[in-house]
Amino acid sequence: MEAIQTLHEQGKFEKFGLSNFTKEQILEWHSYAKSKGRPSAEFPGSYSIAVRGNETALFPTLRELGISVQAYSPIDAGLSVKAPEFIAAAKGSRDPTTMMGRMRQDLYNKPAYMKMPAEFSKLMDNLGLSRSSVAHRWLKYHSALDGSLGDGLLLGAISSEQLEESLLVLEKGPLEP
After folding, report:
1. What is the number of structural domains in the chain?
2. Which of 41, 48, 81, 90 has its CA 20 to 30 A from that of 28?
3. What is the mean pLDDT of residues 75-80?
4. Is residue 72 part of a domain?
5. Does the pLDDT value for residue 1 go beyond 80?
6. C-alpha dist (Å) from residue 22 to 3, 57, 62, 94, 98
7. Closest by alpha carbon to 51, among 127, 131, 107, 111?
């Protein structure tokens, strides 16, 4: 933590990202940072329409400490837009022989999550909306994120076209009730 404090004092960064920190680690960092002049922090974390555990596990603590949330993975690493068979096949970004693949398998390869893509797809088809569109718009306009507290949405894309599509979807505003 001393090295982080030194880099902050040198102006190397404005906010420190507490990504993948547990609640206990966040509290430890906050106590230390506050005693040393506290660099600003934010919490970049996986948060989506399907993966909402942090709403109760971390958000209250983050709010209490004044730490903003930067949500990533609005489509749950593809869970919201891929067929269950693709997810179960454990290929590509879900390949368990890679660190990221193991993490995604541990996080998403559960019976309840495996039902979600088919149910989500059926609902979106009935509404005439794309799964990706709903996932992005829900996160921006209907989730526990609060822009007035500095919260935001981190978008990732595998192409400029995908990024442009995500930005256009967000311009559509909140979902209809």
Report:
1. 1
2. 48
3. 66
4. yes
5. no
6. 20, 9, 11, 23, 23
7. 107
Average pLDDT (169-176) is 92
Q: What is the 3-state secondary structure (H, E, C) of 45-104?
A: EECCCCCCCHHHHCHHHHHHHCCEEEEECCCHHHCCCCCHHHHHCCCHHHCCCCHHHHHH
- State pLDDT tens for residues 32-64: 888 887 767 899 998 988 888 899 999 999 999
- What average pLDDT score do residues 64-75 get? 92
Host domain of residue 22: 2-170
Residue 43: strand pairing partners: 69
CATH number of the domain that residue 16 is part of: 3.20.20.100
Q: Answer whether residue 175 is part of any domain.
A: no
Asked if residues 73 and 104 have their Cβ atoms less than 8 Å apart, the reply is: no
The answer to the question of residue 69 being in a domain is yes
Residue 34 falls inside a structural domain = yes
Tokens standing for residue 127: 């509404």
CA 1/CA 33 separation, integer angstroms = 8
Closest CA to 43 of 31, 55, 60, 26: 26
- Residue 19, token pair as written in the block: 């990504």
Residues 144/111, Cβ–Cβ less than 8 Å: no
Report the DSSP beta bridge partners of residue 69.
43
